[in-house]
Inverse folding.
């Protein structure tokens, strides 16, 4: 998947019309699914692909996994109303990477939710609007202080493929977003039940992260406004810092998520954090606070090279 381009008059017009249509609507009138849509169910999916095309000759995959439990449904709401347009338009206008292909994921809790992982296709045009708004806002989650943020990493490691790494030896980008602590290991039963893979034993969260890092630069965004983070920010920060190091992003204002993701990509591509944040006008201070500690440039030592 991934043909077409957001940077076309028809796609921009379609997104503008969609944004206008959300005015005055409640979140449940934008996200109308009352259960997991079959097209987003990861169970049995062999592969989701980001491939080069005439429209996108040097495609770059970007995965954004949104926590849709409890109060975190605000993330999906904001992305639908304003964030998606900001994300695509800023990438095309600021050009931190070439030919973006975006996949959205919905994240819940594999211990208690019916739909702890939902996965769209990689898309580069208005088709992502329909897929994004099919996400089921389950509003679940348990009382265990974490959600299954490692399920997207597992899916990305074993069930996505992209030409950026296979042809050019360049990883894509993967952002998970939520307000709780780093998760416990994935059990073999959870992997089998929700994705369909048979594995020999449980997988530690660190092992799953390192597997995903072969194909993607992985970041985690903590939404400090979230109910859990507001009360337990120290514990949340420590757990993620221990796991993901400088690729932890602490965000004060969830409405600036799209800008923060674009600036994180710019910093990873070599731009100075202050210079990147300065381009966001009224959002500059929030974005700079979030990205100021990110390492400039992309890490080495994680890449095995293009496929033979």
């Amino acid at each position: 998947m991934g043909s077409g381009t957001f940077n076309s008059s028809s796609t921009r017009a379609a997104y503008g019309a969609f944004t206008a249509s959300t005015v005055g609507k409640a979140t449940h009138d934008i996200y109308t699914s009352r259960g997991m849509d079959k097209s987003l169910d990861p169970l049995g999916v062999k592969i989701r692909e980001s491939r080069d095309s005439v429209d996108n000759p040097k495609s770059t995959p970007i995965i954004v996994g949104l926590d849709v439990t409890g109060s975190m449904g605000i993330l999906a709401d904001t992305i639908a109303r304003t964030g998606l347009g900001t994300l695509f338009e800023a990438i095309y206008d600021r050009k931190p990477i070439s030919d973006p292909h975006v996949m959205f994921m919905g994240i819940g809790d594999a211990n208690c939710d019916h739909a702890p992982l939902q996965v769209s296709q990689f898309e580069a045009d208005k088709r992502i609007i329909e897929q994004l708004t099919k996400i089921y806002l389950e509003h679940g989650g348990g009382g265990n202080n974490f959600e299954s943020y490692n399920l997207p990493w597992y899916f990305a490691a074993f069930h996505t493929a992209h030409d950026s790494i296979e042809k050019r030896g360049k990883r894509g980008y993967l952002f998970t977003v939520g307000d709780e602590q780093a998760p416990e290991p994935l059990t073999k039963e959870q992997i089998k039940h929700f994705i369909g893979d048979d594995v020999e034993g449980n997988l530690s969260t660190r092992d799953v992260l390192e597997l995903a890092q072969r194909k993607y630069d992985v970041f985690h965004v903590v939404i400090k406004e979230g109910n859990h983070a507001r009360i337990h920010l120290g514990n949340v920060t420590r757990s993620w810092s221990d796991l993901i190091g400088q690729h932890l992003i602490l965000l004060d204002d969830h409405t600036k998520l799209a800008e923060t993701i674009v600036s994180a990509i710019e910093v990873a591509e070599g731009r100075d954090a202050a210079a990147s944040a300065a381009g966001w006008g009224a959002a500059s201070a929030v974005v700079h606070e979030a990205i100021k500690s990110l390492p400039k440039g992309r890490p080495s030592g994680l890449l095995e090279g293009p496929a033979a």
